[in-house]
Design brief:
homodimer, about 350 residues, alpha/beta, Rossmann fold, four-stranded parallel sheet, 13 helices, 12 strands, about 45% helix, DNA-binding
Chain lengths: ~350, ~350
DNA sequence: TTGTAGGCGTTATCAG
DNA sequence: CTGATAACGCCTACAA
């Protein structure tokens, strides 16, 4: 079959595509001047700029950042990878980060990795293909393949919500194992001697759980039950988790849930089973999600300042992008918020 | 200038910026052949392809989609705009949409508009500047400026989670006002004569609320209280909302909350105030969030099949991108799920 | 099946 | 302050 030029072309770009040369022609200036009006208005006389802006409005010109990015080798885009938006966990840091990067002239595009290990590799490759000016990664433990890719790409990277000995570039997070240990100390200070933990199957939740258990064993005390749940964990996972371990519970047990969803589920199931809280079962969650404070009674949890993580991540990433040589780690504190469940 | 590259292909070290010509040189083929191996492998001999792939691996080549997009006028990118990730509402459709578009070779980048009206305008401009091959918008009511932009851009658009007489392009959603009316009928069929509504300050929640109220008035029955809440609404908004209207409640009132967060908050506050449910206060939420079924007792809500919305949205958008001329609307059903609160 | 020529729309750079 | 020119890295179109 021969191709004829009469055939309508396949659906390609916009039919009416205004470009910088159109604006320039209408305004009676060179394309470069239009570019300057858009990117460095200080270097254009106010009179010219006004004429150009009028032409832009009249034509409805929307600059092509693909072309601009190719030419300038700056995409003005930051990619942020989060495991999921199903959990309120990452909402605060992402919102804050997005807002601050936006003020600095960068668009933040969110991508979801899911909690499946293979997912992140493909995603990072796909994202690097778009040449972001920076990357925000949730978590600090990545495959060797990803580490190599990131190193080769020479992209500023900020890792959040985790800690690691040797971050890829800059890291803004907190120590999950230490957090678990702090919860253990909190319970122990309350006179507890028997403990249980329900932890999601994700590296950071696991770190919180092992930190908790390790500290308890250091004190020579007893962990009566340990149970791994799905990630991200649901209320139902917490309920099921409690049902699974209920036979092992001591008359007075302190339970650490890897998220407030888990803790809430455990508390609901306990109430249903006639187990009193905090009398028979003390419970501490993680995340300070709204439900921990707005349910009745509110329950104890651990709070991390998500907005601060987002803000510092933005500051650090901008510094890296602008060449400030400050790779390193920023570890933030966490805070146990005692409420009615302990 | 000659195009011959004098860069010595490094043996193992990371190359700052490997390009298609480097791969081509190493594999002993033309750049175009490398491009074909990546994009249309069927048109390259297996032998050549293998050599090229080896070169790609050896150099750690990551194609530059910015350059490719400029040249092909296809970005292989879809932008999805959601109001917030703080609510579980949009999680299902977005996850499903992302997965299906990914299988079709498109990257979906999420952007947050917030619930502030001005936000969407700037965001849409910024996104169009990156020349997405398609757009997913949450909601079907946009400013005139946005409608004009989208029309000019000739980008396939799918609007979800809402309905409108004249969608921009294709729409996959449901009728919020009708949903509210159905909840009214459900309550009325249960013998209710007095009603209340707590609705978030967002267009779709408002439509659900007014649909509910309108149907009740049609029946000549009484709305004892109407209250507008923040968007997105929290559990605390629901609690506060109930406190605000408690003085107006009839001995037996049926309450419609604009989301399950609101309904849950109302139920908690009611219990605290000694108001029995469903005896004195029947409650119906919206969204079938996990909390509605996993709290104790579970409460009545309205379910919309978010995964179906995401799936159909992907199918419709792909059809539009491929030139299938099917602009129009797909309205999905909703389902009231009676549980212990009614 | 593979290669060559040219251009996608913008900006860096340097000249006026 | 403004303009002309040459890339940016890849892919469409056509040729061999």
């Amino acid at each position: 079959m021969s191709k004829t030029t009469i055939n309508p072309p396949p659906n390609r770009g916009p039919l009416v595509s205004v470009k910088i040369t159109d604006v320039a022609a209408l305004a009676g200036v060179a394309p470069m001047t239009v570019s300057r009006v858009l990117n460095t208005p200080d270097r254009v006389s106010e009179l010219t700029a006004a004429r150009v802006r009028a032409a832009i409005d009249q034509l409805g010109y929307v600059p092509n950042l693909i072309a601009g990015g190719l030419s300038s080798r700056r995409s003005r885009m930051i990619a942020a990878i989060v495991p999921t938006i199903a959990s309120p966990m990452f909402n605060e840091p992402v919102q804050t980060f997005t807002a601050l990067m936006g003020e600095a002239g960068y668009h933040v595009m969110l991508a979801l990795s899911g909690y499946t290990p293979g997912g992140e590799d493909r995603l990072v490759r796909a994202i690097l293909a778009r040449r972001p000016d920076g990357l925000l990664l949730t978590g600090a433990h990545h495959s060797a393949a990803i580490r190599a890719l990131l190193a080769d790409a020479r992209v500023p990277v900020v890792e959040i919500w985790d800690t690691a000995e040797h971050p890829t570039d800059v890291l803004v997070g907190f120590d999950h194992a230490e957090l678990g240990a702090a919860v253990a100390e909190f319970f122990i200070a309350g006179g507890h001697t028997h403990f249980a933990v329900l932890s999601a199957r994700d590296p950071r939740a696991a770190a919180r759980g092992t930190g908790f258990v390790a500290r308890i064993r250091q004190h020579g005390l007893t962990v009566v039950a340990e149970r791994v749940l799905n990630a991200p964990s649901s209320i139902e996972d917490g309920r099921q988790g409690l049902r699974d371990i209920v036979a092992s519970l001591a008359p007075r047990t302190a339970l650490f849930g890897s998220s407030d969803m888990v803790a809430f589920g455990a508390l609901i199931e306990a109430r249903k089973l006639g187990i009193s809280s905090p009398g028979q079962l003390a419970v501490c969650g993680f995340g300070d999600f709204e439900i921990s404070r707005s349910t009745e009674p509110p329950f104890t949890t651990v709070r991390v300042d998500g907005a601060a993580i987002g803000r510092i991540a933005a500051e650090q990433l901008l510094a890296r992008i602008n060449g400030a040589a400050t790779p390193g780690r920023v570890l933030l504190p966490f805070e146990i918020i005692p409420r009615s469940s302990t």
